[in-house]
Amino acid sequence: MARLPPFDYTRTAFHMTFDERLRSVFSSVFGIEPTRLLETDSSQTIAEWDSLSHLNLIFALESEFDVRFDAEEIPALVSVNALRLRIAKALDAAEYV
Amino acid sequence: MPLSTSDSSTAEAYLRDTARVEIPRGELKVADYLRVARSLRTGPVAELRPFRLALLSSHTLNVVEPYLMVEAARAGLQLEVYFGAFGQFEQELADPASPLHTFAPNALVLALRPEDIDADAVVRYHATGGERFEQLAGTLVERLQRCVTLFREQSSAPVLMANFAEPAITPLGVFDAGAASLVAAYGRINERLRRGTSDHAGTVIWDYAGLVRSRGTAAWTDQRLWALGRIAVGATNQPALARHLVRTIAGVTRPSAKCLVLDLDNTLWGGVIGDDGLEGIALGDDYPGSVFKAFQRRVLALMDRGVLLAVVSKNDPDVVERAFREHPEMLIGWDQLAASRINWRPKSINLREIADELNLGADALVMFDDNPVERAEIAANAPEVKVIDVPVDPLQFEMALAECAYFDQPGLSNEDRTRNASYQQERQRREFGQRCATVTEFLYSLEMEACIDAGSRPTLSRVAQLVAKTNQFNLTTRRHAEADIAAMSTHPDYRVASLRLRDRFGDQGLVAVGILARRNGDAVVDTFLMSCRVMNRGVEQALMAHLVAEARRMGCDRVIGDYVPTRRNGLVQDFYSRMGFAGVAAEEGVARYALDLREETVMWPDVIRRRPHE
Predict the structure, then answer these.
(1) Residues of chain B scoring pLDDT < 70
(2) CA B441 to CA B544: how far, in whole Å?
(3) B514: burial class by Cβ within 10 Å (0-12, 13-18, 19+)?
C-alpha cells in the first residue's frame, strides 16, 4: 500500500514556514517585532509574559497550529523554545526542531 | 540579545510604527484578536467612542478582555475594562472610594454562577430534593438586587445582570427532563431574576444562559481553563461571549434603528419581477421560493416589534404593487409598508426621501439589499444609512437579519407593538386632513384628548426610550438614563411630565416628555421633546402649558428654557419664541429664553381636551 507523503507544514495557505507562523503568534501576543524574537526568550525576558497573557498565548498557538496542550504542561511551557519543541513534536515534524 | 524589560521602548517604537488600528471584519484568529486588542490599547482611536465597562463575576473573566476590546471596536466603542476581584461584589459596590467607583463605569456587568456560590446545591441537587437550590436562587436574586441598590447610590450607568446557564452535567443525565429537572429549576431561577430586575430602572438581563445554550452547554467550559484559573468560558467560546456582551451593551446604550428598507428582486423574492413576471418569481413553499417566503416572515417579525418597513427598488411601480397585492404567496402586504420608492433613481436619494417622509434621521434606516453595487452606492452617498452586509446565499438572509444588531433594544413598549398601526392611522389622518377646509377645522375634528403623567413607574421605560431616541423635536438633547429619570420623578426639585395623546383615529401613545428642574428659584426646562409624528397639533403647547402650571405650583416666578442646537434639531430653534418666551443672555452654544410667570403664561390649546390621569 502506497504511503502518503508527510504533510508539508512549511507551506500553509499563507505560505509561511513553521518558524514564521510561530514568530507571528508571539508578535501578536507580545507586540515584539517577529524578527527580534529569540529562541532563548521566555517569561523571564519578556515583561508582558504574565499568567494571563500566557493563557492567551496558549490559545493562540493551539488555534494557529491546531494542537492541544494538557492542563498539566501548560504552566511549564513558558519559553519560546519549550513551546516550539512541544508544537513541533505534536506536528510530528522533527526536521524543524 | 533577548528582548527584556529595558528593551520595551523598542517594542513601543515598533508598535508606534505599525499600529494603524484597522478593525478587521469577519471571523478572526485568536492571534489576530490579540494583535488588534494590543493596538487598541496604544491610545485613543479617533473614530471610536470611549467606553468604560466594569465586570464583577464569580468566575475569572479577565482572559476575555482582548476579545471584548476588539468586538467593542467593531461596534464603534473603544473599551476600557475593569475586572473586580471575583466574589467581592458588595465590598466594591458599597465603598464609594473603591477601585470600581473610581473607574466610573459607563456600564456594569454582574455575572454570578450558582455553582460558584454553592456547588452542592447544584451538583447534589437531589440531596435536599432541590430545596437547597431554591434557597440559593432566592439568595442570589436578592444579592444581585442589593448590588444594584448599592451601585445606584454612586452611579446611574446601566447594569447588566447575567442570567443563569444550566450546567452541562445534570444528576439525572438523559432523564433530567423528567421529574425534578435541574434544567427546569434553572428556568425558574431565571424567571425569578427577570421579575426581580423589572423593578429596577436601568437594569437589564444579559442573556448569558441563551448564549451558552446557543453555543452548546457541553462545549462551553474547557476543563483545563477551569482547573488552571477558574475560567468558566472555553477559549473557543470567548469571541462569541465578547460579541454577545458587546451587542447587549450596545443595545442598552445606543438608540435602535427604526425602519427596515428592503430591496425587492432577489431579496423579497427570487428572480427579477420585471423580467420574470408575477408567475415567474420564486416565492412559495418549495425551494427556492421557500427561502424568500421564510425571509418575509422574519421581516414581519421585526414589524411586530415596532420596526417600520419600507421598500426601495429599481422597478416599474405598477408591476411591484401588483406583485404585493396579487401574488398569493406574498406575506408582506402593500399596506404594511410605511413608505416606498419604486423608481430608477439612485437608492441613496430614495432613502433620504423616505427618512424625511417618516420624520426619521437617515441613521434610523437599515438597508437590506442583495446587490453589492447598490450597497456601495448607498454607503458612498448616504453614509448615515446602516447597510447590512448581505451574504450571497439567500439561505443566509434570515441569519444576516438576526445578526444585525441595529434594531436591538431592551424591552418592548406598547408604542413599539402598535407603531405600525399608528403609522397606518397617520396615513388616514393625512387623507382626512386633505378633506378639511382649514387647519383649525382639521384639528378640532381630530377630537384629540391628552393625559399627563408625572413619571409614574409604568411610563418610565417609554419616557427613557423617547429621551434616548428623539433627535429632531428635542430642545436640549440630554440623554438621561432611565434610573436618573426615575430619581427625578420623585425628587422635590424636579417635575417629570409625559403626555399621552388619543384622537378619533386611535391611541398615539406617549408622545412628549418634559422635565423641569428648580434652580435658583427658577423653573428650568431641563428636557423638552416630542415625537415628530404629532407635530403641528398643539401637543407641544399643551405640555408646555402643563409645565408652566407646574412651575407656578413649585413657587417659581420664571420658567427658563434653553435651546441647545445640534445637527438635527433645527426644527425647534424658534420654539420658545412661539410659546411667548423672551430671549435672555446665556453661555455660548445655548439660546436661552425666559417666561415671566407674574405677567405671562402658556395656555392649554382649545383643540385638545385634557383627560384626567388614568
Answers:
(1) 1-20, 613-614
(2) 23
(3) buried
Contacts of A38 in chain B (CB under 8 A): 1-3
The residue of chain B with its CA nearest to that of A47 is B5
pTM for the model stands at 0.79
Q: Which residue among B1, B32, B235 sits closest to A28, beta carbon to beta carbon?
A: B32
Predicted local distance difference test score (pLDDT) of residue B614: 58
Q: Read off the amino acid at residue B529.
A: L
Which among B4, B31, B231 has CB closest to A25? B31
For B207-230, give one letter per residue: b (16+ CB within 10 A) or e. Answer: bbbebbeebebeebbbebbbebbe
Rounded to the nearest 10 degrees, how much is the dihedral formed by the CA atoms of B326, B332, B337, B341?
Answer: -60
Question: pLDDT (tens digit, 9 = 90+) per residue, A34-89?
Answer: 889 998 999 999 999 999 999 999 999 999 999 999 999 999 999 999 999 999 98
Give the list of residues 6+ apart from residue B392 with CB closer than 8 angstroms, or none.
Answer: none
| pLDDT score of A26 | 95
- With a CB-CB cutoff of 8 Å, which residues 338-367 of chain B face chain A? none
Say what the pLDDT of residue B329 is.
96
A80 in B contact zone (CB under 8 Å): no
Q: Let me know: does B443 contact B609? Beta carbons within 8 Å.
A: no
The three-class DSSP label of residue B373 is helix
CB-based contact B224 A27, cutoff 8 Å: no
Q: Enter the DSSP assignment of A79.
A: B
Distance (Å, whole) CA B485 – CA B477: 14
Inform me whether the C-beta atom of residue B43 falls under 8 Å from chain A C-beta atoms: no
Pairing mode, strands B591-596 and B582-584: antiparallel
- Please tell me which residue of chain B has the smallest CA distance to A44: B4
Minimum distance, in Å, between the CA of residue A1 and any CA atom of chain B: 38
Q: Do A28 and B34 touch (CB under 8 A)?
A: yes
